[in-house]
């Protein structure tokens, strides 16, 4: 119990002092996972939309595969990407192993099945509601998917936040492909792992709390944006009454 | 004034529709003429919605059988523009005017013309003052009027409506019917399904009765409601809906 | 009432704007304050070396002397050598002479040079139930094998693990032979032997919570904070010394390797300047690494 209270104190102190190395690590975490969330999110939305609007033989298998990949351990993704990016691997000439770029690649891949599965579900539901109407208005498959994604943008945002959470909280993939190099590829989660293995548990826990605080702030910001949008709708309805 | 020569827009020959093991329509032969105001009546599940979708061309080929022929317009020489209004309007989570602009955008109308036609359509249905409100914040009747505005803005030749007033209160119902009448006044061909036989009487030129996926009988409106020579099922249906006729 | 013209930025455009700003922010600012296009090499080394804090002290000195950044990927010795074999590192700095010589024999490096040594210590519970305290590791291990006290082994092909296995062998115990549970004595694995397949820190964590014995390098021990009841029980035995070697990955095998910059480091670390920097590194006033380049 004392470890936890000590950690809370350390965490608050670190945040208040704005230790430069901590800030750099936090910023790197946000950059890597944020970029991965955008890239993996775009690809995932495309896959999910394709699975929702098309019919092709073997589709059930592909959907099953996507759902299975939801359980892909992050360290396995890390290993696969490592093998791809290693000098001995097919993409070795890119030379991005042990750099943040490799971490973005790994986390993007990690996030794609999640976004694909959730967006497919989302679009199927939206299609059953409005697919006919949009078709009647002259929208083709791709246009329908895009329009429905805009229509369901709040749900898409939640989806992307979920993907971001998965990315920023994982340690297996970035550890393997990034190498946890101090000042270059060391992010919050790998720092926590390092401090834990060094036996500095209070510091590790404190860093965990800092990470949670940062993500909470991000979520609060997003919630504020969406709340404003939702309130407009409510006010509109009240004005009608 | 002489009636214009009959001009078929969509013809169905022994057309059918099947979803999995359910046969929604079978052996339907029908010719939709330009200027028709066709009312589809029948119990729930009789196939009215499926027939509307089939006529409109919304039915995926995998589910359709038989023949559906679409004809070009005379003298315009182009395919007819069709639009559909559903019982519960699907409106996008966007301001009112965007919902109308979307249809125009999908039809390739340039931006300035889009805005102008949207404004006109909204004014026509009495929603001009709500143009920037979120569409979802509108009342049920207003939403259906918006759906009509959206369809109207496309300048359709055929307008399909699937029980357009079923979910509306009486005053909203009257507003929507008035708009349907106005649309018809512009020469738009109408096909609509309804439970409201009074509505069919008021608006339709022809009435088709469906039962269990079959088109049982199809007559001009006066004949349908006043002629005793209707098939037994249709007569029973009318009796059920209008208990004071014999 | 021309609402269409007086509308504020419509929602879709606003969203795109936010997204564009976010994307620009994410992709623009580099996370590290260092010059992005500086010279750097990738060095595969071990977790124990990194956790000792040596690199935080040594590498800035090298950078000041040469302008070259050394990016350390710290893994187990086995993995570090494998990283070199894959050409994913430019230079390898580990502490397992036999494995290093094999690396050279395989052609992945042309040369191996001694750099420094540190030592291992046997830590265990203050009360020392197995009675191993002293300065003779062989005797200590033999005694430990005769009890059922827990002993945590790293079991991860690291230099420390290799050293540990050699010490057991010298003490006359064959780790490959296991004994039935509960039995003590004999020449097989001790009853309390636990193979965690983990790094030095986690092994110490385990030892601390199980109140067991762990063979650890002094560097990791000195910076380890979760000691619990553990203290150093055996130290100073010559066979506990742990030799470090540096090898530049062979450019002939991997043309992309930054051989010149890596050679700069290899030359510097065995030079008087480098050796002095090594000796100067202390934790709590205690020197951890002893330079012994020839």
Features:
heterotrimer, A: 241 residues, MetI-like fold, 10 helices, disordered C terminus, B: 246 residues, alpha/beta, Rossmann fold, 3-stranded antiparallel beta sheet, 8 helices
Brief write-up:
With 241 residues, chain A is mainly α.
Describe the structure.
The complex is a heterotrimer of chains A (241), B (246) and C (294). Chain A is built from ten helices and no strands. Chain A has 241 residues and is an all-alpha fold. Chain A has a single domain (24-225), classed as MetI-like fold (Orthogonal Bundle). The termini of chain A are far apart. In chain A, 46% of the residues are buried. Chain B has a single domain, classed as 3-Layer(aba) Sandwich (Rossmann fold), CATH 3.40.50.300. In chain B, 35% of the residues lie in helices and 26% in strands. Chain B is built from eight helices and nine strands. In chain B, the strands form two sheets. A six-stranded mixed beta sheet of chain B has the order 5-6-7-3-8-9, sandwiched between helices. Chain B has a three-stranded antiparallel beta sheet with strand order 2-1-4, with helices on one face. In chain B, α2 (96-106) crosses α3, α3 (111-124) packs across α4 and α4 (140-153) runs parallel beside α5 (170-185). The mean pLDDT of chain B is 90. The longest helix of chain C is centred in the N-terminal third of the chain and has 18 residues, at 11-28. By secondary structure, chain C is α/β, with parallel strands linked by helices. Chain C has two domains: 39-117 and 243-291, Periplasmic binding protein-like II (D-Maltodextrin-Binding Protein, domain 2, 3-Layer(aba) Sandwich); 119-240, Periplasmic binding protein-like II (D-Maltodextrin-Binding Protein, domain 2), CATH 3.40.190. In chain C, the strands form two sheets. In chain C, strands 1, 2, 3, 4, 5, 6, 7, 8, 9 and 12 form a ten-stranded mixed beta sheet that branches. A two-stranded antiparallel ribbon of chain C has the order 10-11. Helices cover 38% and strands 21% of the residues of chain C. Mean pLDDT of chain C is 85; it is low at 1-11 and 29-36.
